[in-house]
Amino acid sequence: MTSIELPQQEDHVVLLDSVPHPAADAAEPFIVASDRRVILAYPIAESDFERFGPFDPDDDPFCAVLFPDTAFHRLGPPGDSDLGIHPLASQGLAGYSVHEVIASSLAAEIAAVASAELAGRHFVLTFQASTFECVASDYTVVGVYGAGEIAIREAFSLVR
Predict the structure, then answer these.
(1) Total domain count for the chain?
(2) Tell me: the pLDDT tens digits for 11-52?
(3) Global pTM?
(4) Ordered DSSP codes for 18-67
(5) For residue 5, is it within any domain?
């Protein structure tokens, strides 16, 4: 008897709990990028203050996430109100969350046209008015800061 190999489902979305959740109704995220490094900074959800703090009452906590060896990134629609139109919505993409897409069709598509060293992992972060996606080798939360200005300064220093 021979075994039949079934095709593996593409685009399996999983939540990443090791990264702070984006805040609802807060400042928009921003990107600092060079040719192969992307830093995404955004305000974190109040529910994550205790886990990633402590913070002073006057703080407006932001985190900065580094995506090294980035082959692709974008920040744009859809936002929270129309997240259902995103191609990954039916796979579990959630608002104000950080995800990794396992067996990503986007990462496979990029790998087909990019060098093997740029083939990577697919990450998706959802915000109030936008969605950030990137294909990179990994991610690292480089810091959680008390204010956006500090996160901006750190992002610029890391992208050089």
Answers:
(1) 1
(2) 999 999 999 999 997 778 999 999 889 999 999 998 889 888
(3) 0.89
(4) TSPPBPTTSPPPEEEE-SS-EEEEEEBPGGGHHHH----TT---EEEEEE
(5) no
